[in-house]
Amino acid sequence: MDLQAFILCGKGAALAPFTQTRGDSGLSKALLPVANRRMIEYVLDWCEQANFSEVVVVADSDESSQIQDALNTYIEIRKRQHALLAQHGPSVTGVAPLQPVPIKFLVARNETTGAILQKELLPRIKGDFVLLPCDFVTEIPPQIFIDQFRNKDPDNLAMAVRYRNTFDSFDKKHLAVSYTVYSENEDSVKQPVLLDAYSQEDVDRSKYLQARSHLLWRYPNTSISKKLLDASVYFCSFELAELLQPVDPSAARSETESENDDDAIVSPPQNHLVQPIRFRAKNKLLKDPINCNKPLSKVFRDLARRSWQHSTPRETIGLFILPSLGLFIRSNILSAYMEANRCMLRVRSSLFATHGPSGMGNAVGGDSIVGANSTILEKTSIKLSVLGKNCRIGKRCRIVGSILLDNVEIEDECVLENVIVGSFSKVGKKCKLTNSYIEGSYVVGAKTVVKGETLAHIYLDESDQSSASSESSGDDDSSDEYADDYYDEEFEDDGLFER
User: Fold this and answer.
1) Tell me, what's the pLDDT at 89?
2) How far apart are CA 96 and CA 120, in angstroms?
3) In CA terms, which of 192, 268, 271, 479 is 20 to 30 Å from 66?
4) Burial environment of residue 410 by CB neighbours within 10 A (0 to 12, 13 to 18, 19 or more)
5) Interhelix angle for 39-50 vs 61-93, to 10°?
6) Nearest residue to 293 via CA among 466, 177, 132, 120
7) Other beta carbons within 10 Å of 288
8) Which GO terms describe its biological process (predicted)?
9) In 53-186, beta strands by DSSP E
10) Residue 243 carries which DSSP code?
């Protein structure tokens, strides 16, 4: 199955102050390191296993060139690896090695991911495709996803992926918890179907979760779960491109006039991207008006509602719940980002021991990674931590479960537990930092004791102040991705069902 893959690189507002949403001291979200590798490289490795026909990295103009420059080395190394396999692979395995999947870059000009899909990605889509975030790490092979999608029900337009939170260290206050409404279909050969989704804030504001009678009548085996997290992975059929294709009013009017004129010669519509529907042999695909000027999660939520809101049957959105036995984690909040680093450290330590630079009496655990050109002085202990390149750690320090980005300086007798330190930051002598975050280029004074705080620069720019006020009021699309005026919107009752 030839699939195009589109990797959508978001701003990473929930990862502030380490992303570019907090001034020039941050990185692009896709380039934040996980175990000293850029997080998008894990997604590209996963795509390489899937052997997609094409991989397109989508980011806005501010970050696209930065991501492309950072990935040039990754692409070059991958080409060399495939060249070596081409020289020696056939003689060993008897099978010619696969060619590297082409990686392309696309500058997004729209703000929301739904608008990017409709206005910028649809013209590039040639067949079935998959939409991916730039921030997930998994040990579940892509063939599991592809096989599930290949065996989907005939009336499924797409397959949305959900996963369970298996980590107690996640900060529940910042986790984007949602209520997932789906049909389990336990006593049926049909696969689970996504029906609706509500944010925690939306339910709290309304004081209840409303399930329409249309939904319950059509799907009596409906379940509601609060433990399923959105993986932001969507495997989509080619027919979805036709459904989301913007409708040209003049073209629709001319087609109507042609239908009324018996002698008129009906010509095929111009720029028609989609071939005749494969799985809708009896019923033509009904094009309902769908507002795509919103995040992808809301677009697919609206597509899921579409399947039960109308009297005429509509296509469904399949649901694939990842098995809990396999690791899947998105680095979309800071606590999840730290846990992703720890997971990769455990995987690395189980494969081979990692030794830090030689020194007098220092102790770098096998579950830690130390970047190039870093210096660690004597009697310092580092466990389950990641140190970037060009870091300097003083004497008699203890660093546990922490992430130090590049060019960080830690002076003597400091204790860091579960801390993220941004690039070019400095921590003074005899500091004790616990469960805290330090923005890049920040200087922590000597003998500072901090627990559960974020140490960041104060920006006096008006635009930053307005964005900070909106963040404090909870007006952030990443944390409220399902909140809308659902309860206020008009619902057309077709009269089939009694309320």
Assistant:
1) 59
2) 35
3) 479
4) buried
5) 40
6) 120
7) 13
8) cytoplasmic translational initiation
9) 54-60, 103-108, 129-133, 136-138, 156-164, 178-183
10) H
Q: Does domain 4-250+288-335 have CATH number 3.90.550.10?
A: yes
Interhelix angle for 39-50 vs 142-150, to 10°?
50
Task: Return per-residue pLDDT of the chain as tens, 499 residues.
Answer: 589 999 999 888 888 888 876 555 578 899 999 999 999 999 999 999 998 999 999 999 888 889 999 999 898 888 888 788 777 655 554 555 567 788 999 999 998 999 999 999 999 999 999 999 999 999 999 999 999 999 988 889 999 999 987 776 666 666 667 889 999 876 677 789 999 998 888 888 888 787 788 888 888 888 888 889 999 999 999 999 989 987 665 544 444 344 444 433 333 344 444 444 444 444 577 888 888 999 999 999 999 999 898 888 889 999 999 988 788 999 988 989 999 999 899 887 776 554 444 444 568 888 899 999 999 999 999 999 999 999 999 999 999 999 999 999 999 999 999 999 999 999 999 999 999 999 999 999 999 999 999 998 876 555 544 444 444 444 444 444 444 444 444 444 444 443 3
Q: Looking at domain 354-455, does it have CATH number 2.60.40.1400?
A: no
Q: Are 369 and 352 in contact (CB under 8 A)?
A: no
- Six-digit token pair at 283? 């019923």
Buried b (16+ CB within 10 A) or exposed e, 96-128: ebeebbebebbebeeebbbbbbbbbbbeebeeb
- Could you tell me the pTM of the whole model? 0.82
CA angle 141, 144, 149 (to 5 degrees): 135
Alpha carbon separation from 31 to 5, 11, 41, 76, 257 (Å, rounded): 19, 11, 9, 17, 53
Which ranges in the chain are annotated with CATH 3.90.550.10?
Answer: 4-250+288-335
| H helix intervals, 322-475 | 334-351, 462-472
Distances (CA, A) of 340 to 81, 112, 397: 26, 26, 24
Strand pairing category for 363-364 and 228-236: unpaired
Q: Residue 324: beta bridge partners?
A: none
Q: Find tokens 């389950």 and name the residue.
A: 384
Output the six-digit token pair for 463.
């635009």
What is the location of CATH 2.160.10.10 in the chain? 354-455
For residues 74 and 103, what is the distance between their CA atoms, to the nearest angstrom? 11
3-class SS of residue 38:
strand
Q: Which segments of 45-168 are extended strands (E)? A: 54-60, 103-108, 129-133, 136-138, 156-164
